Every structure is written in structure tokens, then in C-alpha cells.
Amino acid sequence: MADIAVIFHWRPADMDAMTASELLSWREQAAVRSGNTS
Predict the structure, then answer these.
(1) What is 1-38 written as a DSSP string?
(2) Does the residue 22 lie in any domain?
(3) Count of alpha carbons within 13 angstroms of residue 2, beta-carbon side
(4) Confidence (pLDDT) at 1
(5) pLDDT digits (tens, 9 = 90+) for 26-37
(6) Pfam families this protein is in (predicted)?
(7) Within a domain: residue 37?
(8) Inside any domain, residue 21
(9) Of 8, 9, 17, 20, which one's alpha carbon is 20 to 30 angstroms from that of 31?
(10) Measured between alpha carbons, how far is 15 from 8 in angstroms, rounded to an integer?
């Protein structure tokens, strides 16, 4: 969740209501946005 928070400037409380599936989707989007290729 830290990577999502850093990229999108969200607080952990903002992500509390998200499902695991939603978090994984946002994590992938964060990786793309950050330019992480690994």
C-alpha cells in the first residue's frame, strides 16, 4: 500500500475501504506511473 500512497498521494485511511482486488489494480497502475519495469 505504501507504493500506492506515494504515487497517488493517498493516506492509508483512503484505501481502507478498498477490496484486495482494487488495491492490486491500483498497485499495478502505480507501478506503471512510476516507470517501474521490474
Answers:
(1) -HHHHHHHT--HHHHTTS-HHHHHHHHHHHHHHHT---
(2) yes
(3) 0
(4) 87
(5) 999 999 999 876
(6) Phage_P2_GpE
(7) no
(8) yes
(9) 17
(10) 11
Amino acid 17 reads: A
Task: Find where cell 507501478 sits.
Answer: 31
Domain boundaries, position 14: 2-32
How far apart (Å, rounded) are the C-alpha atoms in residues 33 and 13?
Answer: 22
Does residue 14 lie in a domain region? yes
Predicted pLDDT of residue 38: 64
Nearest to 23 by CA among 34, 14, 32: 14
Q: What is the pTM of this model?
A: 0.80
Residue 36, judged by CB atoms within 10 A of its CB (0-12, 13-18, 19+), counts as exposed
